Amino acid sequence: MNSGLRHWREAATLLLAAGAPARLLRSPLGPFDYELLLLQRSSRSGFMPSAHVFPGGVVEAADFSADWLGLLPASPLCGLGQVRQPPPGSSRAPLFATDREELGSPLPGEVAFRICAIRETFEEAGILLLVPGPGPAAAGGPVVPLPADRLPPAAELSEWRRRVQQEPACFLQLCQHLRCVPNIWALQEWSNWLTPVGRAGRGGRRYDTAFYLCCLERRPRTEQDSQEVTAFLWSSPPEIIELFKSEEIRLAPPQFYELCRLCNFSSLRELHKFSSDRALEGCECWMPVMLTASDGYIQLLPGDELYPEDPDYTGERKIIMSTDKKVEDLMKGGSIFHRIVIKNINNLAVYVNIQAKYKHINPLRINSACSDYNSKL
User: Fold this and answer.
1) Alpha carbon of 170 to those of 98, 177, 260: distances in Å?
2) CB 45 within 8 A of CB 230
3) To which H or E segment does residue 286 belong?
4) pLDDT tier for residue 21 given thresholds of 50, 70 and 90
5) Which residues contact 228 (CB under 8 A, 6 or more apart)?
6) Cβ distance 233 to 32 under 8 Å?
7) Beta strands, E only, 157-267
């Protein structure tokens, strides 16, 4: 772990997409043949209580354990591809660029963050993303879940899950017991979000989170843990947004943004191909900066014309961006957008008209109060 970080805790989260029968939706987007997994956090959670989130959590020392090198392939990056040099004028996100050996771990961050996402998905949803032997997993289409005959009986697996929840180092022991390894090769680097100033959880918690995408051939068995997670939901991106619109679920702005981005893909294989093709391009690190208007808020993202040249990453400068103008006036007077407009907790809209970097794709413009799925700025 990066003990030098004073303001953020490193974390990893997983956008888990699984094949499902295509259903006709009440929107111009038509049927989707996959669903995403969302978990509802406990109302007692210290960060985003009761919200629906992607599975994931804080990186633990066990995720960086040198013992993983005894299970994973010995090749550079344990068989993961080397991310290409960033475009001119850009740099690799600090989360990934940090030299982990200088921090005492021989395991690269790209490996440890994937192990964290896989471990947390097992802890929170009971889903084991493993492959037999040392790996790497065979390349191809969406991943086929580990066969049931490679898994312990349900009671034994539940006991392993309880042990991993109590002690993350037990996840490595589980992999040794099953003669399997975490399927790190199925997780494609997708995005990197920093908790903005003023949106920290209890105790000032802020996170530097790696977002990964994994496509599964079919939906795996899912079980909530009744501790951190009180419910789970499998549904397509547009259906999730409809639930958010109707105030049946709560989403944080990064989750809403990523769901709007996934609305570009109605096919699981199309999504898998896109994520696989661009995975070695890397991603940009984004810290939203809050602008308070007279009737709402705007989360500004890098590239927006109002995004500060020198953002207050730490919050120590106590910079507050505010205006007496209304959100509508700010939108009419602007021309270069990369922002999330927040009217209230269930009324969000993403506006992007800049070129996406790292061969990524911009989200569809979806106003959660009155959907406009077809339009893009």
Assistant:
1) 26, 10, 36
2) no
3) strand 285-286
4) confident
5) 41, 42, 45, 57, 123, 124
6) no
7) 180-182, 188-194, 207-216, 229-235
- pLDDT band, very low/low/confident/very high, at 200 (cuts 50, 70, 90): low
DSSP 145-157: PPPGGGSPPHHHH
The tally of CA atoms less than 13 A away on the side-chain side of residue 63 is 25
Residue 225's pLDDT band (cuts 50, 70, 90): confident
Instruction: Extract the tokens encoding 225.
Output: 């843990």
**Residues across the chain:** 377
pLDDT at 5 over 60: no
What phi-psi label fits residue 179: left (phi over 0), alpha (psi between -120 and 50 degrees) or beta? left
Over residues 53-69, the pLDDT tens digits come to 999 999 999 999 999 99
Average pLDDT estimate for 266-290: 94
pLDDT band at 374 (very low <50, low <70, confident <90, very high): very low
Helices H / strands E in the chain, number of each: 8, 15
**Residue pair 373/238 in contact by the 8 Å Cβ criterion:** yes
Tokens 């992007």 belong to residue:
352
Dump strand ranges (E) for 68-169.
130-132
Q: Are 325 and 357 in contact (CB under 8 A)?
A: no
b vs e for 187-212, b when ≥16 Cβ sit within 10 Å of the residue's Cβ? bbbbbbbbbbbebbeeeeebbbbbbb
- Bridge-based pairing of strands 9-23 and 56-58 is antiparallel
pLDDT tens, 301-351?
999 999 999 998 877 777 789 999 999 999 999 999 999 999 887 889 999
CA 207/CA 57 separation, integer angstroms: 9
Which residues, in sequence order, are bridge partners of residue 349? Answer: 341, 367
Pair 121, 164: CB distance under 8 Å: no
Question: Residue 360's CB: how many other CB atoms inside 10 A?
Answer: 17
Distance CA 201, CA 199 (A): 7
Per DSSP, 189 falls in state E
Predicted confidence (pLDDT) at residue 218 exceeds the cutoff of 60: yes
- Among 198, 187, 231, 262, which residue's Cα sits nearest to residue 12? 187
